[in-house]
Recover the amino acids of this structure.
């Protein structure tokens, strides 16, 4: 792996309703690193994540992916990024399998087929169940299965552990570790204490 | 695994939207029912005046089609916005205007195409001369996709607002007026035995203009609404 930063945040400022959420934020992330964004409610965690995905424009500053500004290389960047936001982004009136197939059609599909992905997130028997019949935690697991059926280097996760039980949290923790071992990058926010001793972890506290 | 081609992605999204419509039949039958009800109410309200009815039939049908389209517009992006699917679409590796076009196509197939089958029956009920029926079908065929295409821009602009309904109507209705004028004037002309190719060509040019520009405008508007 080269030592050049894969994701570089340069002098980022975000202002919301005349309130500065964060300013002059600079940070570099390298292959295999995980960034945990912490902070109180309303401190701009989700805003930062949405700016990183390119959904939201920063008020100042730039983000570089492999030295290319993401604003100019939008579709190249989006091929390499998978985002699981605050909303699950799954359709309630489609089945689990239909949802994952759609994810593959819209993104950059990995070699894992949707059946297999459901098995990995313990939803195997629910392949043909409508999402509206799933519990909140199961829905969250389906949303996170997006990470498995697409091939991306950068995972951006907004509160991935919301409504997950302990078993599922451990499951996804191991999936995250495997992704980092492959040389991927993860940026996530979480209210849970995250202990991943084997991982090269960076913490960023936005309330500080 | 090989990434999906653009055509495959288009077809996949189209199929997904049609599946969703099929599973929410009641919601999507609503605008069609509205279209039928409005038109059937006119003879009841105006009374048994066949001459008057047949003269205003083109206007009634097109106004009803326009209002039915407005009623259904919000559904193009609303549910995708609410459940976060829309932000995932914006992050898709495929170009957004193509995905927008898939969604608009699905909207037209569900709300515009059925009018093609309903309107001749309703036209006959209003006593429209049979020589105008062909023109009526042509105007519906060319005109309703324009309504979906232009409407998608308005919805994309207002989808981020909690109460976008009124703004949407004010934004879109003026843009619908040319379609209304040329479509109903074509049908009236045909009923009077005139050559209406001018009006139809005008409608066709509106259609191609909307087809080429509105997906771009809608995609940009969606990006704005999401940020």
């Amino acid at each position: 792996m080269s030592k050049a930063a894969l994701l570089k945040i340069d002098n980022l400022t975000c202002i919301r309703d005349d309130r500065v959420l964060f300013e002059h934020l600079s940070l570099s992330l390298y292959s295999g690193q995980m960034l945990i964004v912490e902070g109180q409610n309303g401190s701009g965690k989700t805003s930062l994540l949405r700016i990183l995905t390119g959904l939201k424009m920063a008020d100042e500053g730039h983000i570089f992916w492999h030295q290319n500004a993401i604003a100019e290389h939008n579709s190249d960047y989006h091929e390499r990024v998978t985002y699981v936001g605050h909303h699950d982004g799954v359709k309630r009136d489609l089945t689990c399998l239909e949802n994952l197939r759609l994810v593959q059609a819209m993104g950059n599909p990995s070699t894992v087929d949707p059946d297999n992905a459901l098995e990995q997130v313990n939803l195997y028997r629910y392949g043909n169940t409508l999402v509206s019949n799933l519990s909140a935690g199961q829905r969250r697991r389906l949303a996170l299965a997006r990470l498995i059926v697409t091939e991306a280097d950068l995972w951006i996760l907004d509160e991935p552990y919301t409504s997950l039980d302990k078993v599922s949290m451990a499951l996804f923790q191991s999936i995250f570790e495997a992704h980092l071992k492959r040389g991927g990058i993860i940026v996530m926010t979480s209210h849970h204490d995250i202990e991943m001793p084997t991982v090269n972890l960076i913490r960023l506290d936005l309330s500080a | 695994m090989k990434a999906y081609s653009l055509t495959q992605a288009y077809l996949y999204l189209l199929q997904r939207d049609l599946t969703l419509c099929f599973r929410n039949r009641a919601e999507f039958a609503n605008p069609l029912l509205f279209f039928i009800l409005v038109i059937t109410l006119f003879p009841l309200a105006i009374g048994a005046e066949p001459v008057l009815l047949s003269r205003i039939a083109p206007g009634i049908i097109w106004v009803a089609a326009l209002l039915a389209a407005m009623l259904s517009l919000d559904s193009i992006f609303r549910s995708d916005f609410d459940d976060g699917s829309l932000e995932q679409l914006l992050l898709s590796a495929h170009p957004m205007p193509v995905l927008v076009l898939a969604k608009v196509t699905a909207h037209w197939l569900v709300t515009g195409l059925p009018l093609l089958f309903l309107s001749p029956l309703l036209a006959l009920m209003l006593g429209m001369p049979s020589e105008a029926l062909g023109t009526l079908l042509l105007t519906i065929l060319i005109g309703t996709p324009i309504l979906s295409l232009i409407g998608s821009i308005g919805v994309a602009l207002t989808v981020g607002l909690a109460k976008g309904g009124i703004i949407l109507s004010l934004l879109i209705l003026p843009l619908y007026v040319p379609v209304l004028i040329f479509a109903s004037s074509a049908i009236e002309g045909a009923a009077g035995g005139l050559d209406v190719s001018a009006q139809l060509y005008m409608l066709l040019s509106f259609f191609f203009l909307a087809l080429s520009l509105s997906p771009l405008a809608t995609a940009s508007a969606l990006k704005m609404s999401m940020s």
The helical segments of chain A are 45-53, 74-79, 96-106, 114-120, 136-149, 166-181.
